[in-house]
Design a protein that fits this description.
alpha/beta, Rossmann fold, 11 strands, about 425 residues, 5-stranded parallel β-sheet
């Protein structure tokens, strides 16, 4: 363990003056090999010193003498606090901690001015979403992360691809979500003999009525495409036009889909026979790919035994509509007005560009990085996530939170990655650890 000397105390003074919390300073010093008791004692000594009182006089002359965040970061990594040997400390972890603090500093130092009317809109959206979560929780136990991610995708007017074993309430999620949002839902079970016309609809002729169009189940606000990888690419591609253009072509006529239109497709990861990989062009049209796991705790699973679709009817849950299609569309408009600073935009671009350059650990396992559609997805999804937190502006933590959802299906790995057990999530973790604000 290292002892805290005068140089380190000066660094603590700089950090406190800059607005860092005690807990943030403790974290960095602990990671660099200092004792917790020494850290607490030194922070108290610095706070009681006369220099500390001077530095807290936040007029412009003092501000100009304070270290910038970049200078402060240098003192952490290179000058006054030397890192421990590689065997005892992870450089990637250090960078992640610094990035966390950077997001908090940016959050404190630059809050955009917004009008009170927009602030009220944001508060109202946040309140309504909380009511939606409450209604969904009547039927769906746990899965809070999945519910939040799906709500985020709906706010973005995007679609979701779910991967998970059978029996984890994927169908129940869509049904509960559509009822709570006051919208119509339909389900399509994909099979090997399913035809595109079974999804979109057909034109028929009868002597009494002549030619008429019978619309398929795709004409709904919420569509569950169950086990989409059981059908061949020809059938899967029937969804491409509807997902991107929000319209369907039947024979020679084009029909607009009801708004909002949301597709949640599921795929079964267990089986390798009788399934077809989704074409990259179609996968890219899903805003998010979510990995849904088992119940989070034994307590949740006990609750599931008491409230499930085997022993109860869906109507028994009593889910009440909180929203309607028009309100959802208005909420999607609020997302677009959420403020994003140019620094956050640069951060998003750097993340996506890094997936293409491959000049990092695990880069050798990447065949193709994210396209500009990935950049757009990170842009709009981080706005939606900020809105869900009740904020009118985006911080870096919003981008990091949704990065796995957006990028895990857009980073195409090679055979070497599959052979060595490298997943796209590992690649994303590595990228986030090395990209700074």
């Amino acid at each position: 363990m290292k002892r805290i000397g005068d140089e380190t105390k000066k660094w603590i003074l700089d950090a406190l003056s800059r607005g860092y919390r005690d807990s943030e300073i403790k974290e960095l010093l602990l990671d660099n090999g200092y004792k917790i008791l020494d850290i607490k004692k030194s922070i108290e000594e610095v706070k009681s010193s006369k220099d500390f009182g001077k530095n807290l006089n936040f007029d412009e002359s003092v501000k100009s003498d304070m270290p910038s965040f970049e200078e402060l970061k240098e003192t952490i990594g290179e000058k006054k606090i030397k890192p421990l040997p590689v065997t005892k400390i992870s450089p990637e972890r250090d960078k992640r901690e610094i990035n966390k603090i950077a997001s908090r500093v940016l959050h404190r130092e630059k809050k955009p001015e917004v009008d009170s009317e927009f602030s009220q809109e944001v508060k109202e959206v946040s309140r309504l979403l909380e009511l939606v979560r409450h209604e969904i929780s009547k039927s769906l136990i746990g899965q809070k992360e999945t519910v939040n991610a799906v709500l985020c995708a709906i706010l973005c007017n995007g679609h979701v691809l779910l991967e998970g074993v059978p029996g984890i309430a994927k169908t129940l999620l869509v049904k509960s979500m559509s009822d709570a949002l006051g919208s119509e839902s339909k389900r399509i079970q994909f099979t090997v003999d399913l035809l595109p016309s079974d999804i979109t609809g057909i034109t028929t002729y009868t002597p009494e009525r002549g030619f008429e169009t019978i619309k398929g189940p795709i004409f709904a606000n919420f569509l569950l495409a169950d086990e989409i990888n059981r059908s061949p690419p020809k059938t899967q591609s029937a969804l491409i036009e509807s997902m991107q253009e929000k319209q369907v072509t039947i024979a020679k006529e084009t029909y607009k889909l009801p708004q909002p239109f949301f597709v949640m497709a599921t795929e079964n990861p267990l089986e390798s026979s009788g399934v077809y990989d989704l074409p990259e062009a179609q996968v890219d049209r899903f805003l998010f790919k979510l990995i849904v796991g088992y119940p989070e705790s034994p307590e949740d699973e006990k609750k599931i035994m008491d409230t499930n679709m085997t022993t109860k009817k869906f109507e028994d849950f009593g889910i009440q509509p909180v929203l309607n299609p028009n309100k959802i569309i208005r909420m999607q408009g609020v997302v677009k007005k959420v403020y994003m600073d140019d620094k956050i935009k640069d951060y998003i671009v750097k993340i996506v560009h890094k997936t293409r350059k491959k000049d990092f650990n695990y880069g050798e396992f990447v065949d193709w990085g994210g396209s500009p559609r990935a950049t757009i997805a990170l842009f709009i999804a981080s706005k939606a996530w900020a809105l869900m937190q009740g904020r009118t502006y985006v911080i870096p933590e919003d981008v990091r939170k949704i990065s796995h959802y957006v990028l895990r299906h857009r980073i195409i790995l090679n055979y070497k990655a599959h052979a060595e057990g490298i997943t796209s999530d590992k690649v994303i973790d590595e990228i986030l650890s090395i990209i700074s604000i």
